[in-house]
Amino acid sequence: MNILVTGGAGFIGSHTVVELVKAGYSPFIIDDLSNSNESVLEGLKNILGFDVPFFNADCNDFEIVDQIVKENKIEGIIHFAAFKAVGESVEKPLKYYRNNIGSLLSILEVMQANKVRNLVFSSSCTVYGQPDFIPVTEDTPKKKAESPYGNTKAIAEDILEDVIKSGENVAMISLRYFNPIGAHESAEIGELPNGVPSNLIPFVTQTAIGKRAKLTVFGDDYDTNDGSNVRDFIHVVDLAKAHVSALDLLKTKENAFYDVFNLGTGRGNSVLEVIQTFEKVNNVKLNYEIGPRRAGDVVKIYGNVEKADEILGWKTEKTLEESLRDAWAWELKLKNNKK
Length: 339
Ligand code: NAD
Ligand code: WQD
Prior knowledge:
Layout: E1 2-6, H1 11-22, E2 26-30, H2 39-48, E3 54-55, H3 62-71, E4 76-79, H4 86-91, H5 93-114, E5 118-124, H6 148-165, E6 171-177, E7 179-181, H7 200-209, E8 215-218, E9 230-231, E10 233-235, H8 236-251, E11 257-263, E12 269-270, H9 271-282, E13 288-291, H10 306-312, H11 320-338
Parallel strand pairs: 1-2, 1-4, 2-3, 4-5, 5-6, 6-11, 7-10, 8-13
Antiparallel strand pairs: 9-12
Bound molecules: nicotinamide-adenine-dinucleotide and UDP-4-deoxy-4-formamido-beta-L-arabinopyranose (WQD).
Nicotinamide-adenine-dinucleotide binds at residues 6-7, 9-13, 30-36, 58-60, 80-82, 84, 99, 103, 122, 124, 177, 179-180.
């Protein structure tokens, strides 16, 4: 089955491409490299032993996506392509609405025009905001988004629901990711953020390797066990595998179908626990200090992931330790490549 992977050169997309091939699917990547670069394709080739078909294009462009879908007999789409920097989205909301909503609309129009039935969409735990109860289930009410980025995910989910309500015979799944971290065990692909990372783990690894002087922990006075925020950190390869499970399920649906799934470990770890675990498993010392809280941070969130286990037959296999070991191996590899 030929699968179009939008944003397939990105962090989660590239790991998903590997798992798709392992499961017998044929991925085709479309990525405009706005937040990735072509070295990812080299890494994929080193893992898979062949060149994954790649189109350097913007998936807001209906004509181009339409042509790729037709020429390659695409039967399913995994739509990762989006901008994801929460802070930037507050400063440049239109950039985020244009790209994240625009690209989804063009993908849905191309599906309609070509009778492509299957879509897996990258959503986020950000749709829950600061939840009243944890762990959050898929039925936990969505809250008003804290940022334009978060709002693009909430709106995108509403759009998919409306498409289903319109009676269109498509099968779609939104996957609500928690905090993906780590890298492929080969260290051939991993997380390659442009500029100064805003996410915790790339900041940790870049500090440990000396690219950054110091990590600031954003607050240790929250109402949690050790005062730092709690998150559900999921290994990116586990997350990638869930996309295969989602496609496997969609293929069985002959009638209109839409569902949402939390993808996490079901456990919460604090920022300070992550730092201590990173130091321990990699035997490195991290230069960090406690700083003020970051505006807009959720205090504590992790997912109930029973629905994915029951319906998708998926659950995580990798530990926090493995995630942090793989993230560090990837950072070391990047350093060696630059020598
Ligand atoms: P990423 O930035 O590494 O990957 C996204 C890829 O999409 C990049 O390679 C970028 O170049 C490409 N892209 C962006 N706009 C495009 C366009 N219009 N046309 C073609 N390519 C385009 O991000 P990621 O972490 O791999 O995230 C993938 C998806 O998962 C995104 O939709 C993101 O919002 C969502 N998500 C990510 C996280 C996270 O913490 N990483 C959590 C929840 C949800
Ligand atoms: C994790 C924890 C920080 C950096 C974001 C998006 C969310 C989803 C996942 C896409 C927090 C702390 C971080 C640092 C720190 N993405 N931290 N020092 O905020 O959970 O979620 O990514 O959908 O929408 O908002 O992830 O990695 O930024 O932060 O102390 O230098 O690490 O305060 O508690 P977050 P994160």
